[in-house]
Amino acid sequence: MKDGEVIIVDEHTGRTMQGRRWSDGLHQAVEAKEGVEIQNENQTLASITFQNYFRLYEKLAGMTGTADTEAFEFSSIYKLDTVVVPTNRPMIRKDLPDLVYMTEAEKIQAIIEDIKERTANGQPVLVGTISIEKSEVVSRELTKAGIKHNVLNAKFHANEAGIVAQAGYPAAVTIATNMAGRGTDIMLGGSWQAEVAALEAPTEEQIAQIKADWQVRHDAVLAAGGLHIIGTERHESRRIDNQLRGRSGRQGDPGSSRFYLSMEDALMRIFASDRVSGMMRKLGMKPGEAIEHPWVTKAIANAQRKVESRNFDIRKQLLEYDDVANDQRRAIYTQRNELLDVSDVSDTVNSIREDVFKATIDAYIPPQSLEEMWDIPGLQERLKNDFDLEMPIAEWLDKEPELHEETLRERILAQSIEVYQRKEEVVGAEMMRHFEKGVMLQTLDSLWKEHLAAMDYLRQGIHLRGYAQKDPKQEYKRESFAMFAAMLESLKYEVISTLSKVQVRMPEEVEAMEMQRREEAERLAQMQQLSHQDDDAAVAADLAAQTGERKIGRNDPCPCGSGKKYKQCHGRLS
């Protein structure tokens, strides 16, 4: 809760996600539970996957310290090769083998003991967790053990950079989720720049003293072994593990890292449970003991590869579905950009009008059909309701029995064009061109928004087609194409219907209507004022009646307001 608003916190990073809302009414339920204003469901105005967004660029390149583990995905999705650049200085960080325990409690206790041992030697420790919940568990145990520490999560987001900058202080203990603090260099011995910035007007002597003190701390941390990284469990992706390890041993500094695991961890329980637990049973492990062996590390790495492969397949499948929408997106955005670039869309409107009236007439007068099959009353009603056109088609046919179908079609279209041209003469060509462009853009945006929502609903349930022995992807392509074609037809119809229904007025008529509106408003105001006066008079009469009914004491103040007692004023008259 922040400023009367429910804000989602990412369980993995601890970061607040401004503007993000849960779907299907869940966010509204939480808002009701918290007693804050319930807001409407978010409406998707535009959507695109990261992959298709990046593909919009003609040239694509990137730089990161952990791209090598995802080299296959970069190659298959973006057609990009991954090149590993050698480090500037030799990397001397010690990546210690994983320690695997039977239970979560044993693992946490081992982590606390490791932290105690490291901080006793003055070595700073950074503890990385996979979620806020896990970081709070470790924090509680450290508090019980009396170890001072800092926790990086959504509660202390504003101080994040400062906490991370001082995480290299001797014997400092910092707990962070896997993403927290990335991009901030952890300086061994702490940040002397942060100390200088904390002073209002530092002198040269103060700065020199701060640098000297920092150098002493820096040397002490180097001697203790640099920053030590502790991972409370393996992440689903090796890339995130490498990012955590990469917090230590920068620019040739010393450092170390170790991951602590248990058989109760999600990754181990799902993917590596049987093999590793069988190995641990064979070794006859006792409570509190850990297994440390290259085979275990290899089994865990294989488990991570399985998860990465599964996640890659999910992303690839999502991309295949989005590729269908991407073709439609490209067509709509191209059409929209063309509309924005031109000032005169009258040719497009005229072309659309022909298509719309042809389709409308076809619905009531089938092509090459007998006159007995024509639904003239239905056509007249449709033209009136959807296009505001009064056409006596039945009278035409009565007066001109020889009126041919094709001639009738041409006359209906000509009449609609004539009515539209009369409107244009009233408001002027420039105003009408501006209005046409606005209507087309507004209608396109509205229908595209509805189409995106419909595509979302289709995507959510399309997997059920598999039970009917149909390929969900092919069904999605087929149905989404049909929906897109229907949307384009709706676009034409809505544009012509809106343009046909618009009411235009001469400037003199507009001025007369405005004057009439003002006179009506003044008349209503006068009536309300008279009504209030009548109400006030009625209230005064009621008060007078109440005063007359109430018995006034002889020693009470006289109601006339003279200030005298009643018996000495109007009371004498009675």
Sum this structure up briefly:
This protein has 574 residues and is α/β, with parallel strands linked by helices.
Please explain how this structure is put together:
- By secondary structure, the protein is an alpha/beta fold.
- The chain has four domains: 8-78, no CATH class; 94-314, P-loop containing nucleotide triphosphate hydrolases (Rossmann fold), CATH 3.40.50; 342-501, Helical scaffold and wing domains of SecA, CATH 1.10.3060; 515-568.
- Helix content is 57%, strand content 6%.
- It has helices at 26-34, 50-55, 71-78, 104-120, 132-144, 160-165, 192-198, 204-224, 238-245, 266-282, 294-341, 346-364, 376-387, 393-399, 405-427, 429-461, 472-501, 507-549; strands spanning 8-9, 16-17, 94-95, 99-101, 125-129, 150-152, 173-177, 227-231, 255-262.
- The strands form two sheets. Strands 3, 4, 5, 6, 7, 8 and 9 form a seven-stranded parallel sheet that branches. Strands 1-2 form a two-stranded antiparallel sheet.
- α11 (294-341) packs antiparallel against α16, α12 (346-364) packs antiparallel against α13 (376-387) and α16 packs antiparallel against α17 (472-501).
- The longest helix has 48 residues, at 294-341.
- The protein is extended.
- The mean pLDDT is 82.
